[in-house]
Amino acid sequence: MDLALQLLFTGIGIGAVYSLVALGFVLIFRATNVVNFAQGEFSMVAAYLMVVAVEAGLPYWAAFIVALLGMALLGAVFNLGVYYPLRHRSYLPVIIATIGASILLANSVLAIYGPQPQVLEGWFETPGIQVGPVYLDSQYLLIIGVTICLVIFNFWFFEKTLLGKKLQATSQDKEMASLLGISVSTMIMITFIYSAVLGGLAGILVAPVLFVSIQMGSTIALKAFAATIIGGFGDVAGAIIGGLALGVIETFGAAYVSVPYKDGFAFLVLIAFLIFRPQGIFGERVAEKA
Amino acid sequence: MPLLEIRNLVVRYGEIEALRGVTCAVEEGQVVTLLGANGAGKSTTLRAISGLAKPTSGEILFDGKSIAGLGPEAIVRMGISHVPEGRRVFPGLTVKENIMLGASNRRASTSEISREADAMFDLFPDIRKFTSALGWTLSGGQLQMVAVARGLMAKPRLLLLDEPSLGLAPVIVQAVFKIISEIRRNTTVLLVEQNARMGLSVADYGYVLETGRIVLGGKPDELWGNEAIRAAYLGGHAKASA
């Protein structure tokens, strides 16, 4: 029982990272109808930015802000360079462009930083606290705390503000949104910046737990993508629940069944969902068009 | 000077010439109805005015200023609001939210917009009880009310209405046209209708569009008086030519 509690904590912690990246997937998908295959590289680039900023001698919090500002900039450049020129084309050229961008980002970092994985310290000096039978790692606590705050922020932003409603309207019917005077290109720009920051935040938070490597992006992205399918593609709540579920499942699988197959469990669950419930836990709630 | 003036408007979709030189005008304060069969170019005319379709050639003057080629976001800011065919109510947003977004073309605080949206239900009492229902749950008539209310939130000088009666039961059509006759007190309306009888009943002036050209224009009683037109478009039972 004690072990199960401990695993649940760790699983939720790692699942929260998948949730953040999955949220970025979903937001861009809803705004542009395209899966951004470079979403994982956003996490990777952010982790490297963080490493660079810390090495440059910035205090941790300042490095954090610098890295996130860098991600906002990357999101904007990504939109202008990858999505915007192809926005009137079908989804296929855009998807290929995001794959291309993902290769470009990974190899640029490789060219600059080399293949050696980097280590990023955690935010806190204390490694963690013991609460009863469960050891709460401080970095996982941070991940979970930040994710909770972001989920609340996300809900408030999309459900309670007019700007959030405009973003939703744009994702549901771009032409109609433009007829109302909503600047569609601005809404899509906001979406890319927000998604890049979310992905970046996930990368920065998870970096002290994993190694900072070129491959970390694709690993996280695959899991997050699986999470969006488990949760119900295109669904915000689904992405968050799917991410958490995946984190918990793979942690338990690794502990009770087999450690080497840890990544395999995530994809086993994905395949099971694709066969038995392809619409995911929450299904597609908004019909494409009435 | 008419509020809206269209001269020799040509719109091409690839090889297809949807409009082949449309010339017409809408005077301020009037309701003008554009009649014609399916595929005559009625919707394309509205889409060109609101910026959704790029004119190949010709002029569109709004209040004397050329708007041909501007994007929809710029045109709605100038005061032309387009309620397109098919209502296009956002399915995943509530009725109130849909209506509030109609004010996206102008600067106003959220609380102001919210108050104006609430006031909109006085004009559309039938949808008041659906304030927080999601768009996709509504019926066709309710969607049309929401779409028109949303269009009016832009405080337009010119409202473009595309086939508001399409697919609605006769009693709902009556309700929609009652609203149009109320709107006309403050707003100029350019109405596209297949239902000629209803379309002309609220109009000050009407045009008949045939395969991308205006073939006739006149006051509603003049149009009623034209035998050939009456047989082709206004009879209601006569077969419409494509």
Q: Can you tell me about this structure?
A:
The complex is a heterodimer of chains A (290) and B (242). With 290 residues, chain A is mainly alpha-helical. Chain A has helices at 2-32, 39-55, 60-83, 91-113, 138-160, 162-172, 174-179, 184-206, 216-231, 236-256, 262-276, and strands at 128-131, 134-137. Chain A is built from eleven helices and two strands, in the order ααααββααααααα. In chain A, helix 2 (39-55) packs antiparallel against helix 3 (60-83). The N and C termini of chain A lie far apart (49 Å). The relative contact order of chain A is 0.20. By secondary structure, chain B is α/β, with parallel strands linked by helices. Chain B is built from nine helices and ten strands. In chain B, the strands form two sheets. A six-stranded mixed β-sheet of chain B has the order 6-7-8-3-9-10, with helices on both faces. Chain B has a four-stranded antiparallel β-sheet with strand order 2-1-4-5, covered by helices on one side. Chains A and B meet through helix 6 and helix 7 of A and helix 2 and helix 3 of B.
